[in-house]
Sequence to fold (174 residues):
Amino acid sequence: MKILKTYPHFTDAELKEIMNSQTKVRAFQDWQIIYSVQTNYGKTAEEFAKILGVSKQKIFHVIQQYNKYGETWRRYDNWGGRREARCNMTLKEEKAILSSLESDALNGRVLIYKQVKKIVEEKLGREVSGDYIWDMFKRHGWKKKVPRPSHPKANREEQEEYKKNFKRAWYPNH
Fold:
């Protein structure tokens, strides 16, 4: 049974004020954990987990992060979605590139992902993965169009003749 303890980065009154000023549920819950541990010394993580309705691992994680980073521990509190600091381009930049290519695509000119990849790499000045380009297409509602099932210059009569005269043989699996 490990007794939890927080480092005194804030006083109890400051913690309560920070906790009550939170507008997001996740942030409030995290500050509530810190406030509870700081004001109720001597309890175990299991006891806090039962009282606050969270897992024991969540208690340990929040306290560890708070003790390690102090006042700035909850800097990156956004969950999911695109994080602009880590993105190659913003959504507006991606949309601008695709809108410049849209007329070529609509006029039936062949537009493959390698062409778009080359344009994006020139804009960024570095190499990007093919997955990034496909994800960009999906984000902006572009769909992959497959080529037609047969070549436009194909001779249907020759194909039918080939199908009729094709030698079929059956060989047993030995």
